[in-house]
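pinging the channel bc i need a second pair of eyes. not urgent but kinda urgent?? the chain im working w is below, pasted from the shared doc
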Amino acid sequence: MSNIVAIVGRPNVGKSTFFNRLIQRREAIVDATSGVTRDRHYGKSDWNGKEFSLIDTGGYVKGSDDIFEAEIDKQVELAIDEADAIIFMVDVESGVTGMDEDVATLLRKVKKPVFLVVNKVDNAKRAEDAVEFYSLGLGDYFTIASINGSGTGDLLDALVEALPEKENVEEAELPRFAVVGRPNAGKSSFINALIGEDRYIVTDIAGTTRDSIDTKYNRFGFEFNLVDTAGIRRKAKVKDDLEFYSVMRSVRAIEHCDVCLIVMDATRGFDGQVQNIFWLAQRNRKGIVILVNKWDLVEDKGNNSIKEYERLIRKEIEPFTDVPIVFISVLNKQRIFKAIETAVEVYKNRTKKIKTSVLNDVLLPIIEHNPPPAYKGKFVKIKYIMQLPTPQPQFAFFCNLPQYVREPYKRFLENKLREHFNFNGVPISVYMRKK
């Protein structure tokens, strides 16, 4: 599982520009997802072979009367608390401000790596001006120009060097199912209903992160670790209904699991918060089951209401629509064990290995009848297929001109894989390789 790095600072110092600069660097950022409120983004990063999740927070304004700014301040404090390392960004043009000093005061109390980054340093004169930031009491600093990327390489080299080593979770062990979703969707009730009054628990084990607890579940022939993001410890400075807290927990839990059980509130719909968590799971290549809770509270349910509700969800998750959707009522304990059965099936799909001979026997005739479209007068010939030895389904198609295979045809190949082999609930990666 990767570390979490938070970018903090006052407004208008260039945090988002720095973040956006990084996500354009193919060697640095694998993916990024916009947050559910303004000025917050999440990214999956890899620098020098070391992965980390990057979080761009809103601007910190201590003592503001603005409700939204006060909410951002809570998010910044939470990000500092949850992150493994912090990038504190300041602006050489404006110099040291009172708000910079407020953030520095907050960060001097933190017992984790803090990187002071002076932005907008694009000439020698500004490099000299940056010396005044020593007054913040955070030691040495890095000078960058986020507008053109100058200096970011040295910063990232130092950052990944300082990140703590994470425990290897890809060991032979029980499957991990993470229960994630927005606040008050019924995550805690779902977990309690699964555990039952007699509490069929072998042991409670502290997770490899500060914010998750693995509960070993052994009941009705199922055995797995349940990664509980609902019952973690509360932070004194964070309100229970803070949306950002839910996403922070989900980031860690998703990275630490095999299958995500996304619990959503049927009365609220598949809103932006739930979509954000869904795409975090998809981009991390995890198995996914969508649980529509509180279906009993939905009024005016007609004969086709479930199908229509499911259709609307699938429209929002296109093109990855091969995902199981289970309608449950935790309060009435309806279909909660169906949810677990489905999660187990998705886990089996995610760990499925298909013989190379079977892959080629099934798919090569299909490809022969539906070859890749010619591109620039060149014809692509796919000769051989194999599944890669990775934790999730990834397939390599060996051909003469891999660079000429376009995305629509890759989706065609993925659809054929799903059609002939059950990968319900699991993202698939298709790669074209030179034969």
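so Residues 67-82 form the longest helix (16 residues). and Residues 25-39, 64-69, 197-212, 231-242 have pLDDT under 50 and may be disordered. — does that match what u expected or am i reading it wrong
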